[in-house]
Amino acid sequence: MRDCFGAQEDSPGSNLRVTLRAQQQSPDRPLLTEIVFSTANWRNELILLSRLDIDNLLRRPGLTANAYLLKLSIQNRTSARPIPEPRLVPATSR
After folding, report:
1. What CA–CA distance (Å, rounded) separates 74 from 36?
2. Rounded to whole angstroms, what are the CA distances from 23 to 4, 26, 49, 57?
3. CA 49, 3, 33, 36: dihedral to nearest 10 degrees?
4. Domain range summary for the chain, segments of one domain joined by +
5. What tens digit of pLDDT does each residue of 19-39 get?
6. Pair 53, 26: CB distance under 8 Å
7. How many other C-beta atoms are found inside a 10 Å radius of the C-beta of residue 70?
8. How far is CA 8 from the centre of its chain?
9. In what order do the strands lie in the sheet with 31-38?
10. For the segment 69-88, what is each residue's pLDDT rounded down to a tens digit?
11. Helix, coil or strand: residue 69
């Protein structure tokens, strides 16, 4: 993944957004459309991703959107309030 970041690898506040294909996902749960990595912590986030049960995350009660993105960006938080990462965020059309 180092090549994906290029010169921005150590730039604080930048992200790598990985788009996922809908065709390769289970049709009986919401889609996961993107995974967002921070540049500063991508190595730790990649390890974290390998430990997540994404299918179970997307089957939790209370998820109401058709599609979500998974934010793994541990340190790229601009908000002062603590929000746990990783977290699912409803995907919006761009």
Report:
1. 10
2. 24, 8, 21, 19
3. 60
4. 2-90
5. 898 888 989 999 999 998 877
6. no
7. 24
8. 18
9. 15-19, 31-38, 67-71, 87-90
10. 998 876 545 555 656 668 89
11. strand
